[in-house]
Amino acid sequence: MTAPTEATAAYERTDRTVPTRSADRAHYDRATVHSILDQAYVCHLGFVRDGAPVVLPTLYGRVGETLYLHGSTGSRPLRAAAAGGPAAEADPGLPVCVTVTHVDGLVLAKSAFHHSINYRSVVIHGIARTVTDEAERRSALDALVDHVVPGRAADSRPANAKELAATAVIRLDLAEVSAKIRTGGPNDEPADLSLPHWSGVVPVAQTYGTPVPAADLAPGIATPDYLAAL
User: Fold this and answer.
1) Residue 17 resides in a domain
2) DSSP-derived secondary structure for 78-109
3) Which one of 1, 35, 155, 193 has the lowest number of neighbouring Cβ atoms within 10 Å?
4) 3-class DSSP state for residue 226?
């Protein structure tokens, strides 16, 4: 069977990935999902701990159809994500839901009820598992660094043995996935259009400032070109 590609395949719809409201805003093509994931920095990792829901913000990186997240080996969710791969039933991993959201605009309507935001979001359901293979762990950590600033992994010291021992990496396959996007202006009721209130969209965009060198940066080290590319 030929592996799916961005150009030829979409994620399969499931009961958990089809929204109950505004289903017309849902997208399942890989190109859209990957674009939303690749342009964000922080995801929210949701899971159940001791019978109660927990949601944690964390960095991540995507490699193909896999999302990698990292944290301390003492982190409870990372400990709960038992060693992965084609494991036995006694090693089920951790059921999770991961979300990523971009805010693109503030939508101000004539009525309070119809205020909204323009956004792009991705929701991923699946089983997170700990990465134990050292080569994959190093590759995943490089992906996490390069996700924040492309090219940075090759321009920094890689983790040493002590740092690797203190760092846990989990993987989540992109299988049960959907994107949702809202664009455009307010959806005012016809009866409200004559009201004397401003309506429209306030665009929201991410910007980068000029890089500020560390106070202890050695003389002669120039700002890397990959930072200028931001």
Assistant:
1) no
2) HHHS-B-SS--TT---EEEEEEEEEEEEEEE-
3) 1
4) helix
Gap between the Cα atoms of 68 and 59, Å rounded = 9
DSSP-derived 3-state class of residue 34:
helix
Residue count of the chain:
230
Q: How far apart are CA 167 and CA 110, in angstroms?
A: 50
Tens digits of residue pLDDT in 24-52: 899 999 999 999 999 999 999 999 988 89
The residue range of the domain holding 62 is 23-228
pLDDT tens for 191-217 read 999 999 999 999 999 999 999 999 999
Whether residue 14 is contained in a domain is answered as: no
CB 18 within 8 Å of CB 11: no
* Token code pair at residue 205: 């965009």
What CATH number is attached to the domain comprising 52?
2.30.110.10
pTM (whole model) above 0.85: yes
Question: Which residues does residue 55 pair with via DSSP β-bridges, in sequence order?
Answer: 46
16 in any annotated domain: no
- Low-confidence stretches of the chain (pLDDT < 50) are 1-2, 7, 82-89
Dist. CA 113–CA 192, nearest whole Å:
11
* 1 assigned to some structural domain: no
Q: Which two tokens stand for residue 195?
A: 């009201």
Reading the block at residue 129, the tokens are 């598992």
Question: What are 77's two structure tokens?
Answer: 């969710």
Number of domains comprising the chain: 1
| Euclidean distance between CA atoms 100 and 77, whole angstroms | 18
Whole-angstrom distance, CA of residue 49 vs CA of residue 76: 9
Supply the pLDDT for residue 71: 74
